[in-house]
Amino acid sequence: MENRKKSYKSKKALKMVCAGVCSLLFVAAGVWGGKYYYDKNHDPLGQENITMMAHFEKDVETHTPVSSAKKQTVYMANNEREAIALPAIDPTAPEVPEVPEVTVEEPVTYPLDRSVPYEKGYEVAGVSLDGLTGYQAKYPGLYAKKQEIVAPAEKTIYLTFDDGPSANTDVVLDELDKYGVKATFFVYPGSKNLSSVKTRLLEIAKRGHNIAIHTWTHNYQQVYQSVDAFLADMDKVARLIYETTGIRPCVYRFPGGTTNTRAKNVNRAILDEMERRGFACFDWNSSTQDAEGKSFTGTQLADNAIKSFSGKNRVIVLAHDGGGQKQTPYSIGKIVVTAKKQGFSFGVLDNSCADMLFIKR
Ligand SMILES: [Zn+2]
Fold first, then answer.
1. Which of 8, 43, 83, 196 is the most buried (most CB within 10 A)?
2. Residue 158 in contact with residue 350, Cβ under 8 Å?
3. 107 Cα: distance to centroid of ligand 1 (angstroms)
4. Distance, CA 218 to ligand 1 centroid (Å)?
């Protein structure tokens, strides 16, 4: 009798424990589901015209996994989202477009004068450091001489190359020369052989292109940790560019673009501070899609970029000259020939160009 009572009691207790665990699981599933639904449908930046695209643990710019990232959602502009669709390939298009007549410009001798130490950047820019505190008082070399914003010619296109310099840069430079256009190189010297990086920075400068800052590292956790961390990284790249070529850079680009989720707590403060320092920032509105791990030919990469040209007066093309983008150099010819046929002229980005950003300011 006693035993039966006991077993009845323990069965009841077991049932209650089961019921408790089940309801906890049910509540947890509800909370997780609700959070998932909310994250999927709400833009934390509260912007219009920014369409969300879920790229879990991926870099929106290179579409490669972000190191040590937790699940995250990346927000992209509508135009960039459209650029992800596969291109319509014209099978009759020649693989190698015709090479146009190219005018050779006066050579500039590099390195330029580097006798003013890098740290005197603020003086060169005509800025006073009086009264500045915190990160604003740091990195005195990280300044660019402000320029008036000049409206570009009707229909201007800017070729930009991120993540170099690498051996691929050499081929990119030859192709650019062949088709007679200048470009902007957003350099990323981290984890590369520095002596090769310096040789190539000089070569980019010698061939008349502009050198801009990407970042020293693509570790988002590190660079977007704080405004100070971002500035420290920019300062390192700016110093390398100046001490190698004599160019004080005046343009930069956020790894992953300005609306990258990793940057969302600091992006506006970074833009304000870099603007105070004289720098212009650029995202892009056309992409070769050369860093998505797909094996596009040069012609296909060109088509990816070209399909975003229509209806635009100002096009900034995203391409990469990192070590992995072996086909990218061979997209240049078709991009140049097509853009010229469509009435575009080619420009180089500097801080006299108005910003083009995903983020609304
Ligand atoms: Zn990059």
1. 83
2. no
3. 29
4. 7
Torsion of CA 159, 161, 165, 169, to 10 degrees: -50
Cα 162 to ligand 1 centroid, rounded to whole Å:
5
Alpha carbon of 322 to ligand 1 centroid (Å) = 9
Q: What is the DSSP letter of 312?
A: -
Element (H, E) at 338: helix 332-341
Residue count (the chain): 361
Q: How far is the CA of 255 from the centre of ligand 1 (A)?
A: 5
Number of neighbours of residue 22 by Cβ within 10 angstroms: 10
Cα 204 to ligand 1 centre (Å): 18
**Tens digits of per-residue pLDDT, 187-233?**
999 989 999 999 999 999 999 999 999 999 999 999 999 999 999 99
Q: How far apart are CA 283 and CA 312, in angstroms?
A: 15
Greatest CA separation for the chain: 107
Per-residue burial over 142-159, b = 16 or more CB atoms within 10 Å of its CB, e = otherwise: bbbebeeeeebeeebbbb
Q: Among candidates 159, 158, 169, 162, which has minimal Cα distance to 320?
A: 162
Query: Closest Cα to residue 315, out of 338, 278, 287, 291?
Result: 287
The closest of 99, 86, 80 to 317, measured between CA atoms, is 80
pTM for the whole structure: 0.75
d(CA 213, CA 241): 9
- For residue 214, the CA-to-ligand 1 centroid distance in Å is 7
186 and 209 Cβ atoms separated by less than 8 Å: no
Tens of pLDDT, residues 153-200: 889 999 999 999 999 999 999 999 999 999 999 999 998 999 999 999
Distance (Å, rounded) from C-alpha 46 to C-alpha 53? 15
Quickly state the pLDDT bin for 106 (edges 50, 70, 90). confident
Q: How close is the Cα of 167 to the center of ligand 1, in Å? A: 16
